[in-house]
Amino acid sequence: MFSRRNFLWTSSAAAFLALRSDAGAQQGSTPAAGAVPSAIAALPDLSGQAKPFTNDERLARIERARQLMAINKIDAIILSNNATSSVYFANIRFGGSERFWSLVIPAKAKPFVVCPAFEGDRARELLSAGPFAKDADVLTWQEDEDPFALTVKGLRDCGITTGTVGLDENMKFIFTDSLANAAPQLHFVSALPVTAGCRMIKDAHELDCIRLACRATLLVYRAVYQSLSEGMTTRDVRRLTQTGYLKVGFEGEASLNIGEFTASPHGSMQPQTIREGTILMMDDGCSVEGYTSDITRTFVLGKATDKMKSVFDVVRKAQSAALAAAKPGVALADVDAAARKVIVDAGYGPGFKYFTHRVGHGMGMDMHEWSYLVKNNMFGWELDPVMRQNMVFSDEPGIYIRGEFGVRLEDDMHVTENGAELFTPQSPSLEDPFGNVA
């Protein structure tokens, strides 16, 4: 899962069937049974534009990881259970469990997998389509045996008896603690200098996938917007969105919040109904070959109030300020500061009072990944990182007025050689949010 808000609440196929069988049952102008709104029916199938990643590309990533291991004096990295990085390097997703699985990539030896004995055949099948098909050993443990001691033995067989081993950032504490107890002679550290060090710099293929995901999301959002009418519920809109993603050929979802619920950045689970003149906020995205988009559009059906328009204009200027500040060598904190200054100078301050979150986050295979556009980088890794070419971030300033409404504009931003560019055009206005979408 790559969303921060239950991204795939139900499968798109189930949503489509529900839309066809259930249409018309909800309040408002939901399409007649069996009908799909014309704007959604007209969406193009974009799936043919997506190109799978090859094992040669993954081998290049592994070589870069080994270079970073040498620079950071890390002798091996261990990627455990449901780790996105294991997909990134080896096209393997083991799944999360109380049983210990791991992919171990040494700096100077061939990789190996540790898994339960009854999963050995499945592990070999998973490996067979990846870059380690002929090289990786599979070490198995029975249910009454110690997988952590087995992992340490695998490291020892690679020549790693002392030294430093990097652990995936999402590894369960029980696993990290057990490995430390099994190998007191090893020094365990975060693998982030290697995993994030590789993943936060995108190549051309990765950028193409994110760009396509962004295009697909914006087209689906526009089609949903064109299909809305007063009386529809958030449930109706979720179904329309999932049907839209079925049409474009990618898995995706969008949350919708309405009226005063837009004053909370991630909204509410309470049922909500569209009314003319009420502000609406759509957020989330889709996945293309494992790479995500993350886009927010705020708009009004009918006429926006002068206050809504004024807030929108401030947020749009803040988004532009962040984009203008972004370029290689700039501290990530300075990009947040540029957007925040616009909002505070407009009277929506100080600090995080109305603009309650950072201006952006790194993006790639996870919708949120390192690094972050905020002072101190969320205190989880480097505290003062700078932008580098081919990083990707969301650019999403917002103003949230409790009890009234909120406005957020979010597009995804690619750091270029001399600046930065958005993958999608900025929203023109609350009343015509997709007027510039080709």
What would you note in describing this structure?
The chain is α+β, with helices and mostly antiparallel strands. The protein has twelve helices and 17 strands. The strands form five sheets. Strands 4-3-2-1-5-6 form a six-stranded mixed sheet, with helices on both faces. Strands 7, 8, 9 and 10 form a four-stranded antiparallel sheet that branches. Helix 1 (12-22) packs across helix 10 (234-248). It is globular, with a radius of gyration of 23 Å. It starts with 11 loop residues before the first helix and ends in a 16-residue tail after the last strand.
In short:
With 438 residues, the protein is α+β, with helices and mostly antiparallel strands. 34% of the residues lie in helices and 19% in strands. A 6-stranded mixed β-sheet has the order 4-3-2-1-5-6, sandwiched between helices. Strands 7, 8, 9 and 10 form a 4-stranded antiparallel β-sheet that branches.
